[in-house]
Amino acid sequence: MSAPSIIVIVEAEASTRATLCGILKYAGYRVIGLKKGADALKTILRSPFDAVITDIKLPDVGGIEILELAKEINPDAAVIIMTDCASVETAVDAVNQGAYAYFVKPVNPDEMKTAIVNALKQQRLSLENKRLVESLQRSNRLLFEANEELKKANGLKSEFMAAMSHELRTPLNVIIGFSQLMLDGVPREINEEQRQCLKDILSSGEHLLHLVNDVLDLSKIESGKMELKLRNTDLTDVIESLRRTMMPMLAQRQQSFDVKLGKRLPLVHVDEARVRQVLLNLLSNASKFTPDRGKLEVRAVREGDWCQVSVIDNGIGIEKVDQERIFEAFDRVDNPVTREAGGTGLGLTIAKQIIEMHGGRIWVENEYGKGSKFTFTLPLAPTVSHAQGEERVGSK
Ligand code: ADP
Q1: How far does residue 306's CA lie from ligand 1's centre (Å)?
Q2: Element (H, E) at 271
Q3: Which of 343, 283, 350 is nearest to 311 (CA)?
Q4: Helix (H) or strand (E) holding 187
């Protein structure tokens, strides 16, 4: 149980003082009854108190002086002024200076008790509020400091990853280059067993290089070091060149590749190499996660000030629960097809960052088991006219 609140009562008139002291003591408070203003000043200077009830006109010291000192020592203290009719104006001034209330004499003791109960309740609430605000400010400060530390650590991590990836690329390119050369019969012909070993070295090297390149890209993005070289770009050319690049892979799997473009598709204002990277990732995924003889399709249409590009397949699709998390770094859906397909789990994370750096967005819609549709938006070139085209269909 908390200690009882301490109330100082300053009243020259003995019977009023005794009544107030009695009723408040009975209500459970610790009461100090004083006759003189000077004693009141000494008491509030020396000992703790929660509330003061004082006559405004004491024979020696004014009630206002007691109010001022009480508020100076304990700004949260409740001070109640008692006055006669002649001094009501001064009592109103006292309230304006911070007194909780004033009572015109003769004071009704029950009303005074209610006022004290309310004043102390309000005081407790305001103290509690103050404590909460202070603790919130402290937590905020700690959170801010922890956040700054995290940012610093994250920056260091990105720098370290960028440096590491850069250093790993050189020896990896040597491994890849020499295994390629030896597979081509340089410096001399090799037997079948050696060919198989070299093929394994080459594919592992390429896989590792892919991972290192992805990590390098991601750390560049995270540390704000990836810069976009924005130019007005014709997406039709980008998609056509990607189709040529993908053709051997698609032919091997007997997968079709349709392209549906809005007629007179407007130019987009993008970093062509980065958009190519995004499309290549989406198309490789579409092929990877679609069975042999499946269908791939790229669509691009103008939507207001944006060009909306979709990569569609009729492969395994992605369950609803996995659709958000596949954009997180290293997140892959765990199923036999994805395990078999291999990959880094970074492609979509990088794609999302690149698209968002262009101001666009990327999302996936699909029906599990029926295929996936990845769509992203790119900003149109500033000079684009507002003509809207029909659909042009190309297929291979
Ligand atoms: P990776 O393909 O290297 O694993 P990504 O970030 O490109 O990494 O893709 C993350 C995961 O999203 C994949 O492992 C796969 O589970 C899922 N995914 C991406 N594209 C498709 C798709 N077209 N169809 C089905 N699942 C897909």
Answers
A1: 25
A2: none
A3: 283
A4: none
Residue 387 has which token pair? 């003509």
CA 53 to CA 120: how far, in whole Å? 12
pTM of the model: 0.62
Is residue 28 within 8 A of residue 3, CB to CB? The reply is no
Q: Which residues have C-beta atoms less than 6 Å from ligand 1? A: 281, 285-286, 289, 313, 315-318, 326, 332-333, 338, 343-349, 372
Strands, E assignment, 175-331: 231-233, 256-262, 268-270, 295-303, 306-313
Task: Decide if 372 contacts 366 (C-beta within 8 A).
Answer: yes
pLDDT averaged over 10-residue windows placed end to end, the chain, 396 residues: 89 95 95 96 95 94 93 94 87 90 92 94 92 96 96 87 87 94 92 95 92 88 88 95 92 95 90 96 94 96 94 92 82 62 80 96 84 96 56 35
- What is the β-pairing status of strands 295-303 and 256-262? parallel
